[in-house]
Design a protein that fits this description.
Layout: H1 15-26, E1 34-41, E2 48-55, E3 73-78, H2 87-101, E4 115-121, H3 126-134, E5 138-143, E6 146-150, E7 156-160, H4 170-173, H5 181-191, H6 197-213, H7 215-224, H8 226-235, H9 238-261, H10 266-273, H11 277-291
Parallel strand pairs: 3-4, 4-7
Antiparallel strand pairs: 1-2, 2-3, 5-6, 6-7
Length: 292
C-alpha cells in the first residue's frame, strides 16, 4: 500500500517550526546564554528571518560545533527537505543579515563585526558550492556537516544536517523524509531524559514533523519496541497520537476490504489487520451498505 494516503505533503508538514525547536535542543548546553527568536520580522511587511540567535552576554563559549562560528547576532536560514538552495538563496540570507543590521534603534547599534549567517539544509548543495567557488569564495569543511564559506564580510557557514554527527545532532537529523532508525530511536531515548517544559515542547514539535514524514518508520519502531510506543505517547500531544491512530486504522481498513474481496475469512482478516473481528464486521457491513 502506498504511503501517500497517510503521509502529509511538504505543504502540510510544518518543517520550519520544527527546525527552530530542533536547533534549540541542539544548543541545549548553552540555552540559558542564547536567545532564540523565531521568524524575526525585518519590516512591517512579511519579511522574516527563519531564526535569529542572540548571545545574551559577551564571550559565550558555545559547546555545539555549529555555534563555534557564532558572534552576538546570528541569522539562520532553513531550507525544508526538497527545497532547493542556490547561490541567490545564499545571498538572500546575507541580505537579511544586512537588513537586520539596519534595524538598530541607534546608529551602529548592531555592529557588523558581531554578526554571522548560517544556511541549513538536509543535503549538500554541490551546485551552490560550485557557484561560490566560481566567484572566488572558498568552502572549508570545518566539521562533519559544517562548511565555512570564506571571502565574505560576515562569517558564514552552510550546515548539511544529513552529514552531522549523529551523536551530537539527533534533533536536526530526524527532520528528514528519510530519517534512520538509529536516529529516531536515539532521539526518543534522549528526549525521555528531558524534564524542562520548554524542551519537551520542542521535542513534541520535532516528533510531529518527523513522524508525519516517516510514518512507516515510526510504526515499525512501535511494533518492534513497545517501549517506543509508550515513550511517544508521553512525548507527543494527544491530537498527534490520535491522528496517527486514524492513519493506522485507515491502513488496516483498506487491508481488510482487500482481503475480503479475495475471499479471506473474517477471523483471518482480523488477525492480519491486528484489529477485532467485530471491527472488521463493521467495516465490511459499511462497505456493503455503501455499495447499495
Amino acid at each position: 500500500m502506498e504511503n501517500e494516503n497517510i503521509t502529509l505533503s511538504d505543504m502540510d508538514i510544518q518543517w520550519h517550526p520544527a527546525f527552530c525547536a530542533a536547533t534549540e535542543l541542539d544548543f541545549i548546553a548553552n540555552k540559558t546564554e542564547l536567545d532564540f527568536q523565531r521568524e524575526y520580522n525585518l519590516s512591517k511587511k512579511p519579511l522574516q528571518i527563519d531564526l535569529l540567535v542572540i548571545e545574551k552576554r559577551d564571550n559565550v563559549e558555545i559547546e555545539n560545533e555549529i555555534g563555534h562560528i557564532f558572534r552576538k547576532y546570528n541569522v539562520v536560514e532553513y531550507k525544508s527537505p526538497g527545497d532547493g538552495l542556490t547561490i541567490d538563496d545564499f545571498f538572500k540570507t546575507l541580505a537579511y543579515a544586512y537588513l537586520f543590521k539596519s534595524q538598530g534603534e541607534t546608529v551602529d547599534q548592531i555592529p557588523v563585526d558581531q554578526m554571522t549567517i548560517s544556511v541549513v539544509r538536509e543535503g549538500k548543495p554541490e551546485e551552490m558550492f560550485h557557484s561560490l567557488d566560481r566567484y572566488g569564495f572558498t568552502i572549508e569543511k570545518k566539521y562533519n556537516g559544517v562548511y565555512y564559506v570564506h571571502g565574505l564580510q560576515l562569517p558564514a557557514q552552510v550546515i548539511v544536517t544529513r552529514e552531522l554527527d549523529s551523536k551530537k545532532h539527533r534533533s536536526l537529523r530526524v527532520l528528514s523524509r528519510d530519517a534512520s532508525e538509529e536516529d529516531a530511536r536515539n532521539f526518543i531515548k534522549d528526549a525521555r531524559k528531558l524534564t524542562d517544559q520548554g524542551d519537551l515542547l520542542n521535542v513534541d514539535a520535532i516528533l510531529q514533523v518527523s513522524v508525519s514524514a516517516n510514518y512507516d518508520l515510526y510504526n515499525e519502531l512501535k511494533r518492534r519496541y513497545p517501549e517506543m510506543c509508550e515513550a511517544m505517547k508521553t512525548l507527543m500531544r494527544d491530537e498527534m497520537m490520535e491522528a496517527q491512530r486514524e492513519g493506522e486504522l485507515k491502513k488496516a481498513k483498506d487491508m481488510a476490504l482487500s482481503l475480503s474481496k479475495m475471499g479471506v475469512e473474517i477471523d483471518k482478516i482480523a488477525e492480519a489487520a491486528k484489529v477485532s473481528v467485530q471491527l472488521v464486521q463493521e467495516w465490511l457491513s459499511g462497505s456493503v451498505s455503501a455499495a447499495k
